[in-house]
């Protein structure tokens, strides 16, 4: 799915095994599992020497681990990806599943995790590096992939400390942030990525409520990385390096909600739906209409949302009808499932209905 990388990597996936997942049969855990399959297959196909491992991130199961390695067959040729499992939960230290290159066995090992407790992001990442990276494939560049669905209770100071440690050892990072938005996970992970990134080796995917984790991952920079470009929050230099056609859109935040949750403005949702149907990358700014930022007031004195800007075009547009038509005109290669003239409130469910 992604282009072949220039050099192989040793990758550790930190899986959300917190109590928020409820169990391995819950819909959200299944969504996470499908996204992990997608991520693994992408890494497996991007370089023949990539190795992938998995550890848990919940209090009950930190370190339940799939140990990756490269091994050779009888002819001395590389077997593409070989994986084993080891646990490091308080009651599961040392539990081992022998090395395998079968993805189904990897998934079976993930199903064996114990769900419970809070997400412990910093401890899981530190363990993955100190134990796994300290003993296997020390010659490869190293990457951590964090799948975080539940709330993150680590303080900004702990996240910043983790970022400094990761930066010191040049540990690349992918973050897939989905599900619960408690404690402002988005800003915590933005801080982590901003501080760890080294010449674009870190990426982040915030999964919007209307998409599955896999769908968002497919559309993200993680799945189709751009060399030398950071996946962190947008900036002027980032926009120029990454994609001159990058769309920036401002939408309404939920009223009186300090956690940065998308509001229920039908006009904003209509435009976001259009971008999703077109599979167009974009950056979102949530605007609290009770406390508008100064820059927003300067570019949009009327305070109308949604507000959108296309790439190098310095002009902002605020009429949802015009915006939908402009998106359709700029990206004709992906026709809208719902025609623009009918893409209003209520009609956004039409494509879903037609699929049944």
What's this, in brief?
With 356 residues, the protein is of the alpha/beta class.
Structure description:
The structure is a single chain. The chain has two domains: 10-233, von Willebrand factor, type A domain (Rossmann fold, 3-Layer(aba) Sandwich), CATH 3.40.50; 243-354, Glutaredoxin, CATH 3.40.30. Helices cover 33% and strands 19% of the residues. The protein has eleven helices and eleven strands. A five-stranded parallel sheet has the order 2-1-6-7-8, with helices on both faces. It has a three-stranded antiparallel sheet with strand order 3-4-5. Helix 8 (266-278) packs parallel to helix 10. It is globular and about 55 Å long.
Largest sheet: 5 strands, parallel
Task: Summarize model confidence as the mean pLDDT.
Answer: 73
The helix/strand order is: EHEEEEHHEHEHEHHEHEHEHH
CATH H-level superfamily of the largest domain: von Willebrand factor, type A domain
Task: State which percent range the strand residues make up.
Answer: 15-25%
Estimated structural class = alpha/beta
In total, how many domains does the architecture comprise?
Answer: 2
The CATH architecture category of the largest domain equals 3-Layer(aba) Sandwich
Q: What's the layout of helices and strands?
A:
Blueprint (H helix, E strand, L loop, with lengths): L9 E6 L11 H20 L4 E6 L8 E8 L5 E9 L9 E5 L2 H9 L9 H15 L6 E7 L7 H13 L3 E6 L7 H12 L5 E5 L6 H7 L16 H7 L4 E6 L13 H13 L3 E6 L6 H6 L7 E4 L9 H11 L19 H5 L2
Parallel strand pairs: 1-2, 1-6, 6-7, 7-8, 9-10
Antiparallel strand pairs: 3-4, 4-5, 9-11
Helix pairs in contact: 1-6, 4-5, 8-10
